[in-house]
Amino acid sequence: MAKTAHFLAESARVDEAAVQALPGSRKVYVEGSRPDIRVPFREISLSPTKTSGADEQNPPLLVYDTSGPYTAPDTDIDLRKGLPELRRAWIEERDDTEFLDGPTSEYGQRRANDPMLAPLRFDLTRTPRRAKPGKNVTQLHYARQGIITPEMEFIAIRENQRRQALGTEEVERILGHQHPGEGFGARLPEEITPEFVRQEVAAGRAIIPNNINHPESEPMIIGRNFLVKINGNLGNSAVTSSIEEEVDKMTWGIRWGADTIMDLSTGQNIHETREWIIRNAPVPIGTVPIYQALEKVNGVAEDLTWEVFRDTLIEQAEQGVDYFTIHAGVLLRYVPLTAKRVTGIVSRGGSIMAKWCLFHHRESFLYTHFEEICEICKQYDVAFSLGDGLRPGSVADANDEAQMAELKTLGELTKIAWKHDVQVMIEGPGHVPMHLVKENMDKQLEYCDEAPFYTLGPLVTDIAPGYDHITSGIGAAMIGWYGCAMLCYVTPKEHLGLPNKDDVKTGIITYKIAAHAADLAKGHPAAQRRDNALSKARFEFRWEDQFNLGLDPDTAREYHDETLPKDSAKVAHFCSMCGPKFCSMKISQEVRDYAKDKGLDGDQEAVMKGMEEQAEKFRQQGAELYQEV
Amino acid sequence: MAKTAHFLAESARVDEAAVQALPGSRKVYVEGSRPDIRVPFREISLSPTKTSGADEQNPPLLVYDTSGPYTAPDTDIDLRKGLPELRRAWIEERDDTEFLDGPTSEYGQRRANDPMLAPLRFDLTRTPRRAKPGKNVTQLHYARQGIITPEMEFIAIRENQRRQALGTEEVERILGHQHPGEGFGARLPEEITPEFVRQEVAAGRAIIPNNINHPESEPMIIGRNFLVKINGNLGNSAVTSSIEEEVDKMTWGIRWGADTIMDLSTGQNIHETREWIIRNAPVPIGTVPIYQALEKVNGVAEDLTWEVFRDTLIEQAEQGVDYFTIHAGVLLRYVPLTAKRVTGIVSRGGSIMAKWCLFHHRESFLYTHFEEICEICKQYDVAFSLGDGLRPGSVADANDEAQMAELKTLGELTKIAWKHDVQVMIEGPGHVPMHLVKENMDKQLEYCDEAPFYTLGPLVTDIAPGYDHITSGIGAAMIGWYGCAMLCYVTPKEHLGLPNKDDVKTGIITYKIAAHAADLAKGHPAAQRRDNALSKARFEFRWEDQFNLGLDPDTAREYHDETLPKDSAKVAHFCSMCGPKFCSMKISQEVRDYAKDKGLDGDQEAVMKGMEEQAEKFRQQGAELYQEV
């Protein structure tokens, strides 16, 4: 409480350092078919390539940008006011929603009317929105009727990485080169169109999580025929953390590339923490409602009831939560299957439900009331993230009977959700050795009719606590390649403690690596442009460009400066590995210049002849093209 | 020079903190068929599992140990004296070698006789050893004659991870559980015997790098039907670093698990630096002799000659280098194939040879004198690491014509080396997107007749400078699974600067993760025991055991203590993620206890019946088994 009060006293501005644009970058917007479809990108400007003749321009590179208005120029963010309601007009013109007088959940009303909570409460007077009676406001519902929403068009522009200035023919030869991918069933089109987005959503292969009560969010899509997405978790716990820290972690996480954020709070003031996060989040927010429901019954799992849970769903849906993790696949008969495991049940939600089922000897209310949950979700467009409550917590337990039994049930629930036009993705493990990762992915596609898969890692070994961002980053990259749509990050503190801001950043960057590696391997159109632009900068010793094209320019620059701190080294045509005396890149440039001069890129015989003829000349040149800086 | 003098003044002791045993561990030796075959292991002792009845003992776990005598109890290491000559008797009893009067290389003699170098020189008066005239002293030569050397027996014991105390039946059920691997052609036996080691070496599928002039080394094997190995690089450069730092990096690297060390020095006093490293290294040392040869001709590649190179090979072979990287596959006609690449030639050795070939318009002396190089290697048992001078430096250039052309030539050279009974492994890239990794591995096996593959990463994307231990760790784990025998580490400073000790450790741990993940996926017998032991400790909240079973106990403990610093938290039956109020592991334990009590592990019907009968009892129990600590 003390910390929160302190936070509110401080005018609720975000940390300046955290919101300025990344180095060498500026926010640009690409306009769609109407002026209010303005899709944000980060434009990285590049310096020209020095040649013996005229400088060769390198076109700026546009990259996907999750950071929202925080990195826009002249932004004056006031966390008390929240972000602008980007999607408000789109929602309203569909004319299928209405404002409520206030929260309709019992708990939401109680919190709103508790004068003790005033100092914690978000400033804005906000009225929740809900579907008009009989209406279904999900993007899946629209998609199935053949409607391309502004959200879908926004996404089509956003996913289209090729939108950017073109360079010279030689630059384009390099930047445009892309290895054909191996999709494992992914069908990536040459051009991602609004109609393609609609089709994928309609087929259930992709979801657009955007609650009508979270109009601040910039639309994004989760599906295996799009860019692989990543999620970052935050949330206070009984042990530590404050609202201030959680909002701070959210803005920090999206700065480095989190596509969605899950608020997993289990401690004090969950309701108010969530309100602060949603109002200030340009990305979808997911939650695990059972966590809060458990708090409401004082942590006693067996005291949970459908009524408490239902009220929690409505409370959160009216705040604007974009997707709910629901562990409805933990069936009573699956629980004993975990008894002989090395690590039993490791999902919090799964263990809560297992305990409830055992205690009452009944199927859980999540399962028995699943259609009613669908009814709630379709009034707000909350997507399902069907939780894997029986996921393995060790490689020993990977792909076992309990896990697969639950996955089949999640597949059955998917069909029920689709009957209601509610969007669904499926959560996956966890801990899986490399050779079992593909089997897990394939079974998910089979059992769940290609609904998007959303996995935590998986960790491919258990022997490296302190490095589980890496053990899991390996599995994440692989399962992304095999078809997983979103990867839930893991930080270095996994299994050990709560992540701080550094850990959050490390987790995000590791997962951006995994997701991008998967995009390359799948052959997402133009994913390789960024690699090629960076490699070209590296080869040409454009150090600043190399830093700025990377996922973390600050760390790259810092590492470089540790060995060669002088500013002049940033334009040096050598690096600290070999030093100025000898450099492979330099020699390679000489080879290239030599070949170019002599036209040595025709057939092999001509090449050899040309080389022979020119060898003497080369000897006479002396060959030191390197210019001391 | 100043730094080196300082080093020598300080009695040349290693840093105490760096050589003590890892927490909870002690060095143990397993004896072979003769008393001087004593194979080192690290024994991690574990605390008992608390149960409602008597404590259940957890047997100690033996793990592979690369750290040599440094972590042995009561070790008094004096770097000036070097390590004991473990293999001396084995070499001598074969009676096929003889001592030389001194270095036979011209350069070695010059350095030995230069009074100016006295302060830099290693203390020990050492006489190099060489094969008697007409003798071949390679392990491959012995293996092909059916001889099982002590080195081979040593290795068989070392690779056998199952040698350890056994626990109770329940503990063994958990520790012994192993997912059958997918070997991609790897043929892992249930038990690794000395005869199996011999067969693999004889077939050329594995190598034992141990120069007769490096008797200090503990034998190890590199081959895809054994544990995946990792290499750590060190070496001074023209820009920075001293002998002291390099020796320090070596002892640091093997502490964390480097199986071999490559000394890539390019700066001052390469000869003396190497001597210090070899005399103190319990692991094989590799070099790239062309680096030093280039220094001898003042960095002018075109001035390199066969004579200078040959003298360098003999100089280094007589110091005890265990494997040579030789870029003999860079043929003149392949050089123009790199001209249109995004990143040209990025291998230092490759670019040196390319420049030489272009300048002289001839095939390199490495290629034309390859049989003479074999003649040298077989007199000392130096193994080849045939360098990939044309490896791709970006994902754009992966698996291209230049790379594959060179790989085929390396295959031809392999056959020549084998004709001389010289051991060979093949170096590989580099930068390769995930979906091309397997193709690269498969081509290597095909072109090089299953000689072991030794790759740098590969990096699966280029967009994360500062995190290339991770981008490459992903590719390393995958190629290890597909059959790569050794993985050359990459540190976070790759492409940016020279690694410091922290970077070396991070690189090593990342690569131990990749190698172990590969061992699991391949199904190396008993590799999963360590995962299972750690997961069991995690499930039972044996925090200290969880830390100590990990690859980096220090970091795990530090991370844990950041959130829950009190000592009592180390025995707490909860962790900081959920706090004491609710804990999934705790509930899971309750489920397990419940199932066990009721005998719920029979068939499904009985289970359901049992559960129903007992549900009321469970409700009455209250179920809070958790004991406050």
From TrEMBL, chains A, B:
<comment type="function">
    <text>Catalyzes the synthesis of the hydroxymethylpyrimidine phosphate (HMP-P) moiety of thiamine from aminoimidazole ribotide (AIR) in a radical S-adenosyl-L-methionine (SAM)-dependent reaction.</text>
</comment>
<comment type="similarity">
    <text>Belongs to the ThiC family.</text>
</comment>
<dbReference type="GO" id="GO:0009228">
    <property type="term" value="P:thiamine biosynthetic process"/>
</dbReference>
<feature type="binding site">
    <location>
        <position position="575"/>
    </location>
    <ligand>
        <name>[4Fe-4S] cluster</name>
    </ligand>
</feature>
<dbReference type="Pfam" id="PF01964">
    <property type="entry name" value="ThiC_Rad_SAM"/>
</dbReference>
<feature type="binding site">
    <location>
        <position position="291"/>
    </location>
    <ligand>
        <name>substrate</name>
    </ligand>
</feature>
<dbReference type="Pfam" id="PF13667">
    <property type="entry name" value="ThiC-associated"/>
</dbReference>
<dbReference type="GO" id="GO:0009229">
    <property type="term" value="P:thiamine diphosphate biosynthetic process"/>
</dbReference>
<feature type="binding site">
    <location>
        <position position="583"/>
    </location>
    <ligand>
        <name>[4Fe-4S] cluster</name>
    </ligand>
</feature>
<dbReference type="GO" id="GO:0005829">
    <property type="term" value="C:cytosol"/>
</dbReference>
<dbReference type="InterPro" id="IPR038521">
    <property type="entry name" value="ThiC/Bza_core_dom"/>
</dbReference>
<keyword id="KW-0949">S-adenosyl-L-methionine</keyword>
<keyword id="KW-0456">Lyase</keyword>
<keyword id="KW-0411">Iron-sulfur</keyword>
<feature type="binding site">
    <location>
        <position position="431"/>
    </location>
    <ligand>
        <name>Zn(2+)</name>
    </ligand>
</feature>
<protein>
    <recommendedName>
        <fullName>Phosphomethylpyrimidine synthase</fullName>
        <ecNumber>4.1.99.17</ecNumber>
    </recommendedName>
</protein>
<feature type="binding site">
    <location>
        <position position="454"/>
    </location>
    <ligand>
        <name>substrate</name>
    </ligand>
</feature>
<feature type="binding site">
    <location>
        <begin position="388"/>
        <end position="391"/>
    </location>
    <ligand>
        <name>substrate</name>
    </ligand>
</feature>
<keyword id="KW-0784">Thiamine biosynthesis</keyword>
<keyword id="KW-0862">Zinc</keyword>
<dbReference type="InterPro" id="IPR037509">
    <property type="entry name" value="ThiC"/>
</dbReference>
<dbReference type="GO" id="GO:0008270">
    <property type="term" value="F:zinc ion binding"/>
</dbReference>
<dbReference type="InterPro" id="IPR002817">
    <property type="entry name" value="ThiC/BzaA/B"/>
</dbReference>
<feature type="binding site">
    <location>
        <position position="262"/>
    </location>
    <ligand>
        <name>substrate</name>
    </ligand>
</feature>
<feature type="binding site">
    <location>
        <position position="578"/>
    </location>
    <ligand>
        <name>[4Fe-4S] cluster</name>
    </ligand>
</feature>
<keyword id="KW-0004">4Fe-4S</keyword>
<dbReference type="GO" id="GO:0070284">
    <property type="term" value="F:phosphomethylpyrimidine synthase activity"/>
</dbReference>
<feature type="binding site">
    <location>
        <position position="427"/>
    </location>
    <ligand>
        <name>substrate</name>
    </ligand>
</feature>
<feature type="binding site">
    <location>
        <position position="327"/>
    </location>
    <ligand>
        <name>substrate</name>
    </ligand>
</feature>
<dbReference type="GO" id="GO:0051539">
    <property type="term" value="F:4 iron, 4 sulfur cluster binding"/>
</dbReference>
<keyword id="KW-0408">Iron</keyword>
<feature type="domain" description="ThiC-associated">
    <location>
        <begin position="22"/>
        <end position="98"/>
    </location>
</feature>
<feature type="binding site">
    <location>
        <begin position="347"/>
        <end position="349"/>
    </location>
    <ligand>
        <name>substrate</name>
    </ligand>
</feature>
<comment type="pathway">
    <text>Cofactor biosynthesis; thiamine diphosphate biosynthesis.</text>
</comment>
<feature type="binding site">
    <location>
        <position position="233"/>
    </location>
    <ligand>
        <name>substrate</name>
    </ligand>
</feature>
<feature type="binding site">
    <location>
        <position position="495"/>
    </location>
    <ligand>
        <name>Zn(2+)</name>
    </ligand>
</feature>
<keyword id="KW-0479">Metal-binding</keyword>
<comment type="subunit">
    <text>Homodimer.</text>
</comment>
<dbReference type="InterPro" id="IPR025747">
    <property type="entry name" value="ThiC-associated_dom"/>
</dbReference>
